[in-house]
Structures are given as structure tokens and as C-alpha cells.
Amino acid sequence: MKELEKHYLRPGPAGNAAGVDDAAPPPATVAAVIVLYRPDPAVFTRLVASIASQVQKIFVIDNTPGAQAPPAALEDCGCPLAYHANGKNKGLAAAQNLGLEKAICHGFTHVLLLDQDSTLPPGAVDGLLAAEQALLRQGRPVAAVGPLYIDEKTGERSRGVRRSWIHIRWDSIPLDKTEPVLTDYVIASGSLIRTSVLLHVGLMRDELFIDWVDTEWSYRANSYGYEAYIVPTVSMRHNVGDATVHFLGRRFNLHSPIRNYYIVRNAVYLLKDSRMSPRWRFTMLIYVPKYILVHAWLSRDRWSSFKQMLRGAFEGLTGRMRPLSAS
Fold first, then answer.
1. What is the pTM of this model?
2. Class of domain 2-238
């Protein structure tokens, strides 16, 4: 199976993305891929209930250390499912890739990526599929479509991201907006991706482990000629960050020292990747030092966060991309 998957999932050459799907598309079949890591039972139960009737199969990849049996939320969920326990935390990217490989090898046309703490409303998958098909009929080379997410802690709505050479432009999406919004990337959770695109662009990069995984994939897809869209007529409840604080008139999502390590390490590592947008790399040169200073100051454990972020910057620069526990 692994040899088949390696052959089947080899990315194609860069080229015109619009030419990938010239043939009439087959009827859409959607597999959900959910990655778990110490899930909250009530929140995960809510997620499963929200998608069980919207997809044809659910692949659950469990990164919880020591996990062996499926969570109770998967019992009699009303949807065909497959559960795989990694036995340890192999990282978000590696777990996503395992689920993506399984979905592709089972012949699904689309994959819906989901975090354990998201919730989709009824009809969300059909809404995403309809928006994608409308864009394809317009000749748009779609990489992924994703819902407009609403942060459960703050109520803040997601915005489109467009980078200029000197700053990141966050485009607010009006409440009455109905047309898909072009964005540099969509977050992984809730994103709907055609398996034909995954075969062309490739899967997620395991070495990133957790942060910037979706951003890197979106920019890589863009280097192949694809585009990402937010579908404002489809909403999703989602949790962003561990906590939020207001500082100097802005709201910041705070993370643990370990997450801050990965955020900084991967950002520095990706600065060397030519497939990332030159504008993204330029703004990251400004963003990373600011992130280290601001988030170290706002952290409950300033010194630990500062040290982890400096370590992340050094290891991203030197390409030392092992999981933190193995470094």
C-alpha cells in the first residue's frame, strides 16, 4: 500500500492549473479527514454530528499519545468511517497526509480537512461544492475553497488575506457578500480540496509539523497557478489560539511556548523556499522579529516563550526540522 501511495501521490510538474481538469468532472464524493490530539469529547461529538450526513466517509487520524480505540463520538455516527491511531503525536501535517492518502486511494473526488474543534452548519459541504463548481465554470483555477469561519471566543469573522510588498492586507467580508472572495490562503479546517489538485501540487510538508502547513500548501498551489477562495455564504465555528488579549489597540491570539517555537521556526524555514510568494517572504522578514518581541512580552511565561522562539529562529535558519521533543 505504501509503495502504491508513494507512486500515486507524486506531484506533477508545475504548469497551467486551469488545464488539470479538462474532462467533465465525475460526480463529487467527499471524504472528511479529521486530525485528533487530546480532543474535548463534547466538542468532538458536536463536530462529528455536524458532518456525518454531509460526507460519504470520515477518516479520523488520532495523534493522541497512547490512543488505541476510537472516541465514543464515532460510535453509530451514521457515516462510514475509518479510524487510525498513530500512538503518538506525529504532527498535524503527517496526520493530514495519512488521511489524504487514504481518501485518494479510495477514489474520492474531494477531501474536507477538519480540526477537532470546528463545527460546520447543515448544507456546508454542498455550499462549498457549488461555489467551487461555479468558479471552475468561470475558468478559475481553484486550489481550495473554505468557509468563512467565526472565532467562538471572540465572535470575529475571518477575512481575506492579500499581501503587498510592505504589509499584510486583511480584507473584511461584508455580511451580505455572496460571491467567493479571492485570498492568498484558506485555513486547513473546513477547506475543500479536489484530489486531482492534491495529485498535481502534492500533499502537506511533514517537516513543518503543525504551523504554516496550510499557508505553505496554498502558496505552493499558487506557484502551480491555482487560487484559494473564501465562500462567505458558508460559515464555520472555529477556535483560534489558546487565548486572546488586546494590546496597543490590536487583538492578539496567544499560544503556548511550544506553539510559538513552531510558528517562528517554520516561518524562518519557509523564508528560504522559492515557491513561497516573494511578497510573503518580504513581509515575514518584518513579521518574525515583531512576533517574537510582542508575543514574548504578552506571554504568561515571557522568558520561556522568548527562548523557544529564539531557538525556533535558529533551527529554522539552519534547517533543523525535527519535532521539538526529538531535537
1. 0.88
2. alpha beta
